[in-house]
Amino acid sequence: MNTTMEIEFNAADAAQRLQELGDAELDELPYGVVEMDLDFVVQRYNATESCYSGLPRERVVGRHFFRDVAPCSNNRRVAQRYAQPALDETIAYTFALRMQPVPVTLRMLKPAGGQRMLLLVQWT
Amino acid sequence: MKRDARPAGQEVEELLQFVYLMPVGIVRLGADGAVETINPKAVQLLQDMDVDSGHADGATILDALGEGLADAWRESAGRVGAVMAPRRCSPSLPSGEPLHLQVKAVPPLHLQVQVVRPDLRCTMISIEDISETVEQERELARQRRRIGLVLEQIQGYCVAMLDAAGAVSEWNPSINRLLGASAEAVVGQPLLNWLARDVHPDAAPGIDHIRAAVAAQGWCRLAAPWRHGDGRVLWGDCVVTPVVEPAGQTSGYVAVIRDITDEHLRTQQLLGEALTDPLTGLHNRRGLEQQLAALAQRPAGPAARMTWVMVDIDHFKRVNDSHGHDGGDAVLKALAAALQGAARNGDPLARLGGEEFVLLLPDAPAAVGFRVAERLRLAVQALVVRHATRSVRVTASFGVAEQAAGEDWPAAMVRADAALYRAKNEGRNRVVLAEADSPAA
User: Fold this and answer.
1) Kind and range of the H or E element at A103?
2) Angle formed by the axes of helices B366-381 and B316-342, nearest 10°
3) Is the dihedral of CA B240, B241, B244, B248 positive or negative?
4) Which of A60, B39, B263, B411 gives 20 to 30 Å between its CA and that of B380?
5) Does the pLDDT at position B299 exceed 90?
6) Which domains does chain A have, with CATH numbers?
7) Residues of chain B contacting A93 with CB distance shorter than 8 Å
8) Is residue B88 scored above 80 in pLDDT?
9) Domain ranges in chain B?
10) B154-265 and B278-437 share one CATH topology?
């Protein structure tokens, strides 16, 4: 618990450290974490994000995130940014979570040369 | 949907996912105009327009979706039903945000918006992204404009779109230019109605002929006479090709007609010159053969008998010798006119060469031919040709033969020629009936 609390939403080395966490530790985080492979297929979906979206993990893991889970962010602001070879950007965005417009902060992470991409979601 | 004993929570999850994936944006406003419910597609579309649905109220959203929309919505307060008919809007997209990606030019966004008050307490807004449809429609309109321009510019051609039955389905200026027909007179009418059937019934095929040719070889071509709106006949070379739908059926035809009137008339004129004796204006030998071919086309019946009258000017060499070739030509011309005047109207008369002529009498027995020949002989005898300061008089000899059943025309001509030879031997300026046709034989 102590170790996880150290990974702040804005931590510079978040991408590397989040990938090293176990599933239980990932669930403890106060922000949503979506971990995808390079083909956008969801590998891990933490409890916080599941709670925001109302979608249980089993409905999400193994699916194409932008096509089958969150088509509302399959656009130039979010999905298209992952086309870059490396990415670490934070933007203000609005999600429709549980049918409400919810202002969120998104952090999009794609370490150069890595096999994973991350999307962090923080309620504002 | 099958009712089973699934836990309620699972149904809610399914419903959530269903709404998350909905491709149409939906917003519900409460009585106070605040956003109560919104689905992800609506958030995304509004976000593309730089409207933050997390903070915006209904009026702001409607303002962004179209001019006057928010006012119409406010005015509709207290009423139930559609606030306005579904309408299209094309919001300008924000351009300020730098993109780190090599994205092609952002395509314009076209939306279809509906606003409905299902009851007095709430408002539903649906926002559909119809950008692709609109772009397709525009491309289609562009193509139609291009084709329209081409049809307005081309001269001497007419392009007509026909339905499967051969009726004109669309009017364009080229139809008016070639056929002199207005849109009201043409659309819905069979194009083949413009064929000049009364003038050339053989050269004007029906739609069945065209359909069969198209089915057999994929297209059809016909040179036919067409009736211009002002009454004149023009000749058009018409190519018909089918419009085949992806499923394979023929939904219509495209007919392209080229005006070939000038060419056609020139050909007819050359043909006429080739068949005419230039000095006398009568048929020449080729013209006679063409007349015979036309006569052979007639249905053969018991009455289809034909009599030949061969004509030769007596002592024509003397005319040439004493009056020169000019005098000879003047005599030939005058004599041709005299023969024409004395012959039955319409019977083919030809100059075979030199001073020799032939008259054909279709549907006439030898006796009639004999009487006509006698009339010709008297007409020639009475003829006085003025040449230079002198008068020239001539006579002619005639041989008459009726073409027998089963006899070919060269044989009949030879017999008529033999009778003519006898007329010469018997003293000239007379008519002699061929042996087989004379009552004595």
Assistant:
1) strand A100-110
2) 120
3) positive
4) B411
5) no
6) 2-123 (3.30.450.20)
7) 47
8) yes
9) 8-93+105-133, 154-265, 278-437
10) no
Cross-strand pairs, B362: B306
Single-letter amino acid code for the residue at B65: L
List beta partners, residue B88: B112
CATH architecture of B154-265: 2-Layer Sandwich (3.30)
Assigned token pair, A102 = 């919810």
Q: What topology does CATH give the domain B8-93+105-133?
A: Beta-Lactamase (3.30.450)
Q: Which residues in chain A are closer than 8 Å to B44, comparing Cβ atoms?
A: 71-75
Which residues 80-119 of chain A have a CB within 8 Å of chain B? 80-81, 83-84, 89, 93-96, 98-103
CATH code given to domain B278-437: 3.30.70.270
Any chain A CB within 8 A of the CB of B106?
Answer: yes
The residue assigned the tokens 């056929």 is B179
> CB-based burial of residue A96 (10 Å sphere; 0-12 exposed, 13-18 middle, 19+ buried)?
buried
Q: What is the Cα–Cα distance from B177 to B179, expressed in whole angstroms?
A: 6
pTM: 0.53
Dist CA A71 CA A67 (whole Å): 5
Q: Which pLDDT tens digit goes with each residue over B261-280?
A: 898 889 888 888 889 999 99
For an interface test with A, the pick among B15, B21, B47 (most A C-beta atoms closer than 10 Å) comes out as B47
A101 contacts B54? CB cut-off 8 A: yes
Q: Copy the structure tokens of residue B358.
A: 């032939």
